[in-house]
Each structure stands twice: as structure tokens, then as C-alpha cells.
Amino acid sequence: SQTIHQWPATLVQPVGSPLSLECTVEGTSNPNLYWYRQAAGRGLQLLFYSVGIGQISSEVPQNLSASRPQDRQFILSSKKLLLSDSGFYLCAWFDRSFGNTIYFGEGSWLTVV
Amino acid sequence: AQSVTQPDIHITVSEGASLELRCNYSYGATPYLFWYVQSPGQGLQLLLKYFSGDTLVQGIKGFEAEFKRSQSSFNLRKPSVHWSDAAEYFCAVGLNDMRFGAGTRLTVKP
User: Fold this and answer.
1) What residues of chain B lie within 8 A of the CB of A92, using their CB?
2) Cβ of B95 under 8 Å from any chain A Cβ?
């Protein structure tokens, strides 16, 4: 079956520290992968998406970056966190061969202090 | 540029009344279309989706949506709203990218 794992679930980081959120997918190959951020009471903002290994499309020119070192691994990073980076981060995947549905990870709560 | 718009930030309806939530998009080709619902503190639940075929799509919980190519719209409807339908509703649209609207918060009056 198709599953998606995202970690860590909760993170409290000081301003200026680095960030690494990781997402892995099982039960599929060559999916589209996504990173979203959801601020409290707001919609999902698309940050990055990837259609293949090493292929990253950036939607938000901020201090965040994404990488896809393996087919089913998607990483969200920052070298220096800002207070405004606080929020709920969701990894997701989409595969046309699996019912054309967007599947979401459990999410990661990031608080920058 | 690709975009998805939910024009209504907040809608209030009486229990038993009909509901229509609007979703408009701007894409060069017909994208995949989704409606998700999110209750407070909960994850996103898929209500329905469209990618081809019959333009009237039936979903869970009595919801349906109609794809109108000429209007670039995918509006969500329900003939009779229940108090448990109170939640945040998100339209999602995309091809390789998947973009979500800002959401419409539904309040149901008794």
C-alpha cells in the first residue's frame, strides 16, 4: 500500500539555526512530490514540487530550499531560519497511476523562537 | 501564471439549506481538480476529484461538484447542509504543480 512518512513531527528551533524536514514515500515510484506550508487558519501555500530526482520547482523565493536525492525522498531545508518560517509543513505526493489523488504526510509543526 | 481562487472567505448557511462553494482557476490546459475538507485540528480529507469524463462529480458526504470548462470553475455543492459540515473547504488544482485555494470557512446555523 502507499504510505508517506514525514518527520520530525514537532520542532522548536532558534532563529538563525538550520532546518531539515524529511519525507519518504512507499508503495509507488516516480511520484510528484510537494512541500506545503499552512499558516494558522490559512490555506496551503505551495513551496516546492518535484516531478523527478533532482528536479525541483520553487514557488516561493525565500530562505527555504528543497532537494530530492532519491525517487521517494523529499527534503525541505534552510540554512538560517527566520521567525516567519514558523508554521505547519506538509509533504504530499501525487501519482496518476494511484487514483489521481493527493496523499498527505502527517505534517511537521515548526516553531522558530 | 497558474492560480486557483476561492472568492468566498466565509459562508454561513442554515442547517438544511443548500450550499455552493466557488472555485475558479487559471491554467493553460485542463488541470486535475479536487475539493478537500478540513475540520479544526484535523487533516485534509478528500471530498471528490475530477480529471476527465462526466463533468458532474459525486463525492462523499453528499457533496457534488461540476466542472465548467468555459468558466474555468469547479464549484462544490450540497443540496442540504448538516451541522457537521461546518469546516474549512479547500479547492486544489494542478497539473504537475498542485495549488490550493485560500479556503472557504463554512458556518452552519441551527
Assistant:
1) 98
2) no
**What is the Cα Rg of chain B in Å?**
13
pLDDT by position in tens, chain A (length 113): 668 899 999 999 999 999 999 999 998 888 999 999 998 767 899 999 999 999 999 988 678 999 999 999 999 999 999 999 999 999 999 987 766 788 899 999 999 99
- Name the amino acid, one letter, at A5: H
Q: Does A26 touch chain B (CB under 8 A)?
A: no
Interface of B with A in 17-76 (CB under 8 A): 32, 34, 43-44, 46, 49, 51
The conformation of residue B84, written as its DSSP 8-state character, comes to G
User: What is d(CA A14, CA A112) in angstroms, rounded to the nearest whole number?
Assistant: 5
